[in-house]
Design brief:
The chain is of the alpha+beta class and 258 residues long. The protein is 48% helix and 9% strand. α1 crosses α2, α3 packs across α9 and α4 runs parallel beside α6. The radius of gyration is 18 Å and the shape is globular.
Length: 258
């Protein structure tokens, strides 16, 4: 899976979004998700051989509970889909210039939506994680801008179309993608794309991704458990169903762990 050439300089953490209790969790996760990402990118390793999940790197329920808290579960989140109270949340860290992210978006995500989001089991929350330079950053900001007019997922679909990456993500191309996505006010879209709010949103997402040890795209958290790479649909299904079963068991036991 693609990996960044270098990590950008760290930004000061937003105190309201990064409580002190995450300090140890994110430090441990950096090693865990880094290992998971590495396993997903070992040359010659078949995707179906030892799926790159947390199960292959040891179990730490306390860590997973802390990481699960990174799910925002905000009713007005324009870069999310699915019920706020869904038992399972999949957080995706991705780049619009990443070919494997596009593969996940085209081949796997629609099936997950049909099977789990539509049934109320799964919520998907997007995090912009641009790692391939200026066009990655521009596309990330543009996706946020499309979301301000409630067209993030339509923009996401257009930007991950089969031939979209090859056409690039210059300013004119991003405007065209917004038009294809049904964004009504294109002038506002352009203003929003270049706004400080767009830059801040993308930077916060990127900081979170690096903070939990993501080193490649796409990277995921499923109820706090890391999974890296465009794994087969069956791998995601297994992880989602296991997380849903765990939530059901905790609930039936009176939620003793919380």
């Amino acid at each position: 899976m693609p990996t960044p050439a270098r990590r950008p300089s760290a930004r000061k953490a937003h105190p309201a979004r990064k409580p002190v209790l995450f300090g140890l969790a994110t430090a441990l996760a950096a090693g865990l998700l880094g290992l998971v990402s590495y396993r997903a990118t070992v040359p010659g390793a078949p995707a179906s051989d030892t799926p790159a999940t947390a199960a292959t790197a040891g179990q730490d329920p306390d860590l997973y509970r802390e990481l699960a808290e990174l799910a925002r579960r905000e009713a007005g989140d324009k870069l999310a889909r699915g019920r706020v109270d869904a038992p399972v949340v999949l957080v995706e860290y991705a780049d619009f210039r990443c070919g494997y992210c596009g593969k996940f978006a085209r081949d796997t995500e629609p099936e997950l939506i049909k099977r789990y989001v539509d049934s109320g089991t799964l919520r998907i929350e997007w995090r912009n994680f641009p790692i391939f330079g200026k066009e990655s950053e521009a596309a990330a900001r543009a996706s946020w801008a499309a979301g301000q007019q409630d067209h993030f997922w339509a923009f996401h679909r257009a930007a991950y179309a089969e031939d979209a990456k090859e056409k690039g993500f210059g300013a004119d191309r991003l405007r065209e993608l917004a038009r294809q996505a049904g964004v009504k006010d294109l002038d506002r879209f352009v203003r929003d794309t270049g706004s400080p709010e767009a830059a801040r949103s993308v930077a916060d997402d990127q900081e979170q991704a690096y903070g939990i040890g993501a080193t490649s795209t796409p990277s995921f958290l499923i109820n706090g458990r890391p999974l890296a790479g465009a794994q087969p649909t069956a791998v995601f299904a297994q992880a989602i169903e296991a997380a849903a079963a765990e939530e059901a068991n905790v609930g039936n036991a009176g939620d003793p762990a919380r």
